[in-house]
Amino acid sequence: MDDGMKNGNSDMTPERLFTAVRLSPELRGAVSGMCRRLSQELPFAKWTHEGDYHITLQFLGDTDPRNIPELVSALKKSAADFGPFTMSLRGTGVFGAPSAPRVLWAGLDGETDRLRELHSRIVAATEPLGFRAEERAYKPHVTLARKYRGEQGFDSQYLDALTREESVLQASWKVDEWVLFATRMHNKPMYEIVETIKI
Asked: Where is this motif: HXTX 1 (predicted)?
């Protein structure tokens, strides 16, 4: 288990866990630069920390720390023979009310079928341990910001104009690992790596 957990939770308080694919370090930096520019024009309440950019695979929720070793073992087996694949960022969009969205996101392209297969393998591996897949459809994305706070209604055409020339929204990266994250509310970055799993 990664050293990071040693600093996190030494008692038996449940860990809030999820699995995710991270953006490459170079891409995380480039996306952060784009978001600094966007934040000057788009009044969202909270912009994602550079270290937290990711694509969620499965949200696992509150987990007894004593069960984490068994979980990690199951996760490693789920993708032991999976192999690397390539993902790309592609465009932006929002979730929530069009005039006051709750999430600003970057979309995905590339080998999205492989991403969905990895998601399915993880869900299948964690179900025998008592974890449940979310009922809503899997919609992979990268969250950039949350809670629009503008005095004027949000304008998706303005977002398109702001991001049209952003080369980072066409950038690709090789996915050769994924992570088990623990949430550390109010920390920056907010997500701490429990385990890194190579594929």
From this structure: 54-57
